[in-house]
Design goal:
The chain has 17 helices and 18 strands. With 474 residues, the protein is of the alpha/beta class. The strands form three sheets. It has a nine-stranded mixed beta sheet with strand order 3-4-5-2-1-6-7-11-12, with helices on both faces. Strands 15-14-13-16-17-18 form a six-stranded parallel beta sheet, with helices on both faces.
């Protein structure tokens, strides 16, 4: 099949979070299965590409009541073609956090069909990601000025995090997108305003999210962020497919960031990495290490993890935190580091090498998220024989077997976390049993190939019924 991905970010060229990792890895896995895959993303001022994309020219885009010019550049890597769309909207220091973000990504979305046609691609299906490109399914069904053969092209919409939805004014959004006013009464209308996420839910032929459990959770008011009723309404076309990880990058047997490589058969070498971690951050080598690699935010449960640190120290854990985020959480982590020398350490920020060392050198990894659509850190930790201690939600539930490959808890509170770390500490005291748990965790297959095959089957089920319906919109 010929598949076009549309995303606001893609690793390694642009990244703020897990969305970029998925869009960076899944297309390569699909290409290895024999599919033709193109990824379209904005050409940001901060684009990390060396060499830069090959400039192929300008394209005229119907937008905001007029014609807007966007530039196009391309490159290829590992069997995947990448196209980057340039405009002054994307020539800014950061990717997000601007007052006109919805308008910026409406332009990006409006340009996708024209740019795809400019590249000579006739896709069997578009796969769009999160609110930034969620209007594309609606454009393909009802938009004017579509390239020949693009109308009614099948689409799949993936929710990576339903919390962020792309809200704007209804009239102005229709004007930006050059869409008919009759669509005011469509799925895009959310209590009188425009909601990009809801438009994607309504107009896409299939809706996916990044774990089976999260697909069920977002049908409830607790996790649906106001869209739970819509999720229940479209549940017949909703499916959850667990993300994977790059098993070449995250491989303790070949990892160049860690001082001693190891695998399931040489787990004793993991201790050399623990020693290095303790020496770098002045931690007591005789205590088990509970690592944290996370954005420091309430969603990630870092507030109650910080509150639990005295209890964790009492349970005889060392705590090592790597991450950045909300300033009050950063300050809380620093406070506990200063009051528990030799037992608690931190690195505020992100460093790729330190992240690899924490995965390899820790005994367990805390993931206390209030909600977690999928999560990758638990998969990485298991690959390194570091057992996750995680809240029983979303992709954490789908990827961790309690008291086998990790430890799960229900209550999003210090008590809930301390209950699970207490269970883990009891198992850690039995070295042979802990080694069995490590070995089983390292056996789990979280490669993208598994997920890619599920996506490929789903694409086929969407594209086949739609082929006969495709006709021009004049």
């Amino acid at each position: 099949m010929n598949i076009v991905f549309a995303s606001s970010e893609v690793y390694p060229y642009s990244k703020t979070g897990g969305l970029a990792d998925v869009v960076g890895a899944l297309p390569e896995a699909l290409a290895k299965l024999g599919h033709e895959v193109t990824v379209i993303s904005p050409w940001y001022k901060t684009l990390r590409a060396d060499p830069q994309p090959l400039w192929i020219g300008d394209e005229w885009i119907p937008f905001d009541g007029a014609i807007t010019i966007c530039g196009v550049g391309t490159l290829e890597k590992n069997g995947v073609k990448y196209a980057f769309i340039s405009n002054e909207f994307f020539n800014r220091p950061a990717i997000y956090s601007y007052n006109d973000d919805v308008k910026r990504f409406c332009l990006f979305t409006r340009a996708i069909p024209q740019v795809t046609a400019r590249l000579g691609i006739k896709p069997d299906l578009f796969h769009v990601h999160d609110w930034h490109t969620a209007y594309l399914p609606m454009l393909l069904e009802h938009g004017w000025h579509m390239p020949e053969g693009f109308a009614h092209t099948p689409s799949v919409f993936t929710i990576h995090n339903i919390q962020y939805q792309g809200n704007s004014g209804l009239d102005e959004t229709l004007y930006w997108l050059r869409l008919p006013s009759s669509l005011k009464d469509s799925y895009m209308n959310y209590f009188g305003g425009a909601n990009a996420m809801q438009a994607g839910l309504g107009f896409a032929h299939k809706v996916t999210t990044v774990s089976p459990t999260y697909a069920e959770e977002i049908k409830s008011p607790e996790y649906g962020y106001g869209l739970d009723a819509t999720m229940r309404h479209v549940s017949g076309k909703l499916v959850g497919i667990l993300n994977g990880i790059d098993t070449d990058i995250w491989n303790p047997a070949t990892d160049k960031y860690i001082p001693k490589q190891y695998d399931r058969k040489t787990l004793e070498h993991k201790g050399a990495n623990k020693q290095e971690l303790c020496e770098r951050f002045n931690l007591d080598i005789n205590k088990p290490i509970l690592g944290v690699v996370s954005r420091l935010a309430d969603q990630k449960g870092i507030d109650f993890l910080a509150s639990a640190i005295p209890g964790l120290v009492w349970q005889d854990w060392n705590v090592m935190v790597l991450g950045a985020g909300d300033s009050y959480l950063e300050d809380s982590v620093r406070y506990h580091t200063n009051t528990n020398p030799g037992r608690v350490a931190n690195y505020i920020g992100y460093d790729e090498g330190f992240a690899h060392l924490i995965y390899a050198g820790s005994d367990a990894l805390a993931i206390p998220s209030r909600f977690e659509p999928c999560g990758l850190t638990q998969m990485i930790a298991m690959r390194y024989g570091t057992l996750p201690v995680a809240r029983d939600t979303g992709g954490l539930h789908d990827s961790i077997i309690h008291d086998k490959t990790g430890f799960l808890f229900n209550s999003a509170s210090p008590d809930g976390l301390l209950w699970a770390t207490g269970v883990a500490r009891g198992v850690y005291a039995q070295s042979e049993l802990w080694r069995e748990r490590q070995s089983l965790a390292m056996e789990q297959d979280f490669s993208w190939e598994v997920s890619a095959r599920q996506y490929a089957e789903m694409y086929q089920s969407v594209a086949e019924p739609q082929r006969a319906k495709r006709k021009p919109i004049l």
